[in-house]
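B., you asked whether I could sanity-check this one before it goes into the benchmark set. Here's the sequence:
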Amino acid sequence: MIEAGFMELVEIIKTLRGPNGCPWDRAQTIKTAKEYVLEEAYELLDAVEKTDHKGILEEAGDLLFQVLFLINLEEEEGSFHIKDVIRNVKEKMVRRHPHVFGNASVKDADEVLANWQRIKEEEKGKKNRDSNGMPYSMPGSKQLTKVFKMLEKKAIRIDIHDLTKRLRHLSEKTLFEPDQELESKRILSLLLLFILYSFTKGIDIDYEMKRFAHSISRQLCSLKEKGLNLDDILPNA
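And here's what the prediction gave me:
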């Protein structure tokens, strides 16, 4: 039943891409498809965040469609087949769970994660020893957080006093000693320092920025009439 439904969905995509299919679907490429994969992934995450089971049902289907659509584009290019995708992920899951499908033993979930990371690094090392397994498309704040976690694992300590001193000094220079040539570098450094500071305080900066953005969006109607006032949108501090 599941296999039949899955193949029907695959055939729908092939029909949409076919000679008598949809002009919009036929115009899509691997590059344009990434936008819709990302959009559907975010919508699924929203549903998960809200524990919206009906929403998860719908958005999981939408994301599945986009992933299958992307795979179909690769098939058309002759890069690989959907069978290759399924075989690859099956082999990967078996390989990364040696305590289930092999003879390895683990004492707890933490050891499972450690083994997973070690096996992943061994696999990725064969392809690119400089990647650290970090997707380039991941939001910058998330990438930085992963880097900071790597520092922690290597027992590299962050001096919080030095960090706050640098933040204060660079903030003052940026605000009170304007320099057009250095402005972009200073702002970038400030962003990096703020994200690092948030990390040391256990604050998920990406999550908080999303909450802030949604808070602002809910106030847009009233802001249109009376104009933008920072006191109306900035968090109380």
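One thing to flag: The chain has a mean pLDDT of 85. Otherwise nothing jumped out at me.
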